[in-house]
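Tokenised fold entry reproduced for everyone:
>
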Amino acid sequence: MLTHLHACLQYRRSRPVRYVVAAFTAIFVVSTLYYLEIPHHPEGFQDELREHLPHWPLPIPISGGSESKTSPPVWEERAAQVKQAFLHAYRGYLQHANGYDELRPLSLAGVNNFNGWNVTMYDSLDTMLLMDLWDEFAEALPVVKEGNFRQLRASNGNGWNKSGYVPFFETVIRYLGGLLAAYAMSGEQVLLDRAHELATILEPAFGSSAGMPRFGVNPATGASSQGVSGVLAEVASCQLEWTYVAHATGNKTHFDRVDKLLHTLANAMEQRKGGMFPTHWHLNGGKATSESRSMGAAADSGHEYLLKQYLLTGKQDVESLEMYILTANEALTRLLYLTPNRELLYVTDTAGGSFTASHNFEHLACFFPGLLALGAHTVDLNAALAAIDPSKLSAEARRQYEVLSKYDLHALHMAAAEGLTTSCWLMYADQPSGLGPETVQMRHDWKFVGEDGKPKVNSKGKLWIDAVEEWNEGGRRGPLPGLGEKKTITQLRKEDGTAQADYSVRRPDYFLRPETLESIYLMWRTTGNPVWRERGWQIFQAIEREAKTPSGYASVKQINKSPAPQSDEQPSYFLAETLKYLYLLFKNEDLVPLDKWVFNTEAHPLPVFNWSSWEKHKFGIPS
């Protein structure tokens, strides 16, 4: 891509990352010392060592050495409580909404939001397997086997079904992802057969000139919607599912679909010369139509799948890794800010070419710290950055490269992951309900004294990377910016009675979303620090207290009240993601090792694999 363009376009998976052996060895040693927190080095030791390193080492934020006050049997009991919560939600669905997509837990009725194909059941299959719910899984198999993907059921929900099209993105991540994960975990052939059938039905969506999927497909006629515009999250979040279904079935058509999409993304990154992909795209041209950036609703999983595609293919798809590194570079240097009160770290979005930050912080963006932790845990980030030729980058992307090339990226990514996950958790802990809001507006009015000695206000906000640079230059006094102890607003007000929140709530809803718990789970698995499990337990208790109904769980309208008023909806992802991440967080056994499985954006785990020699020959993948 950015190194050896022609090889990228024709042999995307063939070029290996150029590892810098000496740098890797030194970085590994220093990172290990920090991670283990080996104390009492001679004075000047780190300064002397730093002279021989290509990167500035940073302290690994949270190491895995602290002891938990909660015993392993208690964690197993807490996992059992999550299992009971799943059964409560799923049985309520079967009793009151069987045959429909989702349960309305207050009116005790079913609703068809996603094709009318029992989406809650499909989304729940692999959660059942992880929880050893064999009877529920066995009873679902005949329903899955007999399901009719060619016929839409009448919509009484969001109205997509009335158009005659099934939404490509939602159908892929929920139905196709659910089928593939359940097949990978159970070996039940019927699940793979249905996944192959569904993928074939959906493939007309790839009919745009650039191979970017359109919004929807009419499953009865095979016609696709004809729009030429799309958002990144919807047009670049199917690589995992199509790659795995191609591998599992040996179907070349499935492979060709994903291969063309990956080439389009690689070409777009090459033409843009680095940086993050913007939010809006022209599907035929395969090019961005805006310069807006986001880690939220319009873009989130599009960024997520870059790293995960690399991991899923046994770290063979190097171009996807490079795109992830360039994406993370821009996010770390241009989208991460600090609040002036508690120095909370947050990621925001920008609109247009001016790159003016909105300082909105979405719950959906709380997946990002978990992605950073996953990347730091599975990838040699410094070597991956070194493999990119900065002369091929735009001026701005090269600036980002040069800023970050000074650091140990493993430590920097983990620092950002810790700070962001802490902020996401505080959005919950600050509220009377204990649940987190959908969107907040972060304070960014930093006060300082100008050169003339007069007080001034920086209304544009403080970029995290600038604060890190100042911290470095100032002798590294105190914790890394955005880290350190963070008290809740309630705790601070008890101390002085005047503490102000670092944000205002713009949307007070809690839609039973999983993103914060996803990152908390990944922080636990990558650091081993039990504080993340305790924070997850607090959130689960809040869900039980505020969202539970006699027949399921309901979204919450106002997180700033307790008891919180409820909404008449139980999203399928609550069973597929929220409860799954909680269960995995509390189980002592690592049921889904991060080096062996990759979660799709709906938390359906797909197994890491390597293309066989025959697959490479059949699909035209260079060895």
Observations:
- Residues 1-57+312-429+444-501 form one domain.
